[in-house]
């Protein structure tokens, strides 16, 4: 008797072979045992005869095969002592390459699920690995539902002290919006791709390999030296590498400083409006916040800081208003720190991005009493995703910060540190930064001109940074304006998240220009302004009144 299979009947058999309620079943033409070798249908197209376990996107195929076999063994479909299908046969059943199956088999042998036997093949182990007895059939492939259901995680998992303020959010798909007026991102068009790849490769060469790959428990001396000579001297700071700590972005520097210098209940004075994440960092270690109001000259010095232990400021470009703290106020705060016995944390996150005039010297360089700790970052000049920042201060403080960091993640990645150092040493970072800064200057000019034309009068538009702080002049909350703008392909930040009382930000929005082309800015600003309902009876909101507010 000759079996004849047409193309249509073959496809019908192929489609009907997959049972949604039993994905692990194999189909065959005559009740063939799963461990028998197949009798291939010559001349027919190859198709998968067994379904692999589902897995998240990006999971390696060999990993999926390994998990599938592990589940077959745990379920008993492949009993202990049974000979497993050859790699060729099982590859045929799964519709994958033989190499993939061999890789999975080797992994299962290493894990104790399978046992090889010379010239006889591979067999299911008589003694499964210890972990197998704890796996339910559904979880043998890596499912985690039992984690969610078997333990009341609210009793065990705590995210720390709850905060009354909104959290900073990032739109991952910003590049697909028509007008991405976002802040906190770096334009990838100005990232030195080729130079960065060269630096990464060189950092793995014989001269730099150990600095890149060793567990050193210390920072890269080449990077420390480069920062001292190429970055800090420009800001007026002349320090040695012993005065520096490399951090995973400036935010980790703030976190380490908060944990090291503050006790539960201590008070921290900071600008209002101010940097949202800094307020969260201090609050989460138990600090009580004191608001320091801001005007066109930056944070306003107070006669009394109510016993604050720290004063946090962003003097070069106040976050988020972008105004620069005047020299007179800098000197006044430095004197007050000595008189009232507090420390100053100077967050100098984008001082280099100034498009008119000269950059002011940093406060730390002006402080004769050594009470100002300097926090810097390469996020604005290189890329925020590389997470590279630094803290500059007295040796005893840096040593304490390093000891605390050691038990969080020991050190920032050595390979990244050495590559950045080589990038700076070759001058590639400075060249790409100059190009970006020049282009940002054009973007600021386009954004400022559009703001003067389309938005209410009286805007303060300092020539620096990567965003504009704008008054809307309308009663509509800025959260609603931001949501409406998003629906029209325009991304902006509402002002609410920057104030200690979020409602104080209802009349403000933040419009970034760091990633949008200059020629797109005028049209985007015009469309954004069109979303603001005009109402001439409303007076223009002013900056919050000068007052001190102490969190209870």
How would you describe what is shown here?
- This protein has 552 residues and is α/β, with parallel strands linked by helices.
- It has 3 domains: 7-145, Winged helix-like DNA-binding domain superfamily/Winged helix DNA-binding domain (Arc Repressor Mutant, subunit A, Orthogonal Bundle); 174-186 and 431-530, Aspartate Aminotransferase, domain 1 (Alpha-Beta Complex), CATH 3.90.1150.10; 192-429, Aspartate Aminotransferase, domain 2 (3-Layer(aba) Sandwich), CATH 3.40.640.10.
- It is built from 17 helices and 15 strands.
- The strands form 4 sheets. An 8-stranded mixed sheet has the order 4-11-10-9-8-5-6-7, with helices on both faces. A 3-stranded antiparallel sheet has the order 12-15-14, with helices on one face. It has a two-stranded antiparallel ribbon with strand order 1-2.
- α10 links the parallel β5 and β6 (288-295).
- It is globular.
- The model is unreliable at 1-47, 137-143 and 535-552 (pLDDT under 50).
């Amino acid at each position: 008797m000759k079996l004849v299979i047409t193309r249509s009947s073959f496809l019908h058999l192929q489609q009907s072979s997959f049972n949604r309620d039993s994905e692990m079943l194999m189909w065959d033409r005559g009740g063939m045992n799963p461990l028998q070798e197949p009798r291939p249908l010559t001349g027919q197209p190859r198709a998968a005869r067994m379904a692999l376990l589902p897995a998240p996107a990006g999971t390696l195929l060999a990993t999926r095969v390994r998990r599938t076999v592990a589940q077959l063994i745990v379920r008993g479909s492949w009993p202990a002592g049974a000979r497993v299908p050859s790699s060729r046969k099982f590859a045929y059943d799964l519709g994958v390459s033989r190499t993939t199956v061999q890789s999975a088999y080797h992994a299962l042998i290493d894990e104790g699920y399978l046992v090889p036997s010379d010239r006889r093949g591979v067999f299911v182990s008589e003694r499964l690995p210890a972990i197998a007895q704890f796996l339910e059939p559904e979880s043998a492939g890596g499912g985690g539902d039992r984690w969610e259901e078997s333990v009341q995680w609210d009793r065990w998992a705590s995210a720390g002290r709850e905060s009354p303020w909104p959290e900073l959010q990032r739109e991952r798909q910003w590049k697909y919006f028509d007008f991405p007026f976002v802040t906190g991102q770096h334009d990838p068009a100005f990232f030195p791709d080729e130079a960065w790849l060269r630096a990464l490769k060189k950092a793995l060469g014989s001269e730099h390999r150990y600095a890149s790959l060793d567990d050193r428990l210390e920072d890269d001396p080449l990077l420390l030296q480069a920062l001292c000579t190429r970055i800090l001297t420009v800001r007026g700071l002349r320090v040695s590498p012993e005065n520096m700590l490399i951090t995973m972005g400036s935010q980790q520097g703030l976190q380490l400083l908060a944990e090291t210098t503050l006790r539960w209940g201590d008070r921290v004075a900071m600008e209002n409006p101010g940097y949202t994440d800094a307020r969260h960092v201090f609050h989460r270690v138990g600090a009580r916040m004191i608001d320091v109001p801001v005007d066109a000259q930056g944070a306003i010095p107070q006669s009394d800081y109510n016993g604050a232990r720290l004063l946090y400021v962003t003097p070069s470009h106040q976050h988020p208003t972008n105004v620069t703290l005047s020299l007179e106020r800098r000197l006044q705060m430095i004197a007050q720190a000595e008189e009232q016995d507090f420390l100053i944390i100077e967050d100098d996150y984008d001082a280099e991005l100034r498009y008119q005039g000269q950059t002011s010297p940093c406060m730390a360089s002006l402080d004769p009493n050594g009470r100002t700790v300097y926090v810097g970052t390469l996020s604005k000049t290189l890329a925020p995703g590389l997470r590279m920042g630094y803290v500059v201060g007295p040796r005893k403080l840096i040593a304490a910060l390093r000891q605390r960091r050691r038990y969080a993640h020991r050190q920032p990645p050595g390979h990244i540190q050495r590559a950045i150092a080589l990038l700076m040493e070759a001058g590639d970072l400075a060249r790409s930064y100059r190009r970006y800064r020049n282009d940002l200057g054009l973007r600021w000019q386009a954004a400022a001109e559009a703001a003067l034309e389309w938005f209410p009068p009286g805007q303060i538009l300092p020539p620096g940074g990567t965003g504009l702080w704008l008054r809307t002049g309308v009663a509509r909350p800025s959260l609603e304006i931001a949501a409406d703008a998003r629906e029209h392909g325009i991304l902006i930040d509402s002002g609410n998240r920057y104030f200690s009382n979020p409602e104080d930000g209802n009349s403000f929005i933040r419009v970034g220009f760091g990633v949008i082309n200059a020629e797109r800015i005028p049209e985007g600003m015009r469309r954004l302004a069109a979303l603001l309902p005009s109402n001439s009876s409303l007076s223009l909101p002013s900056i919050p009144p000068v007052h001190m507010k102490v969190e209870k």
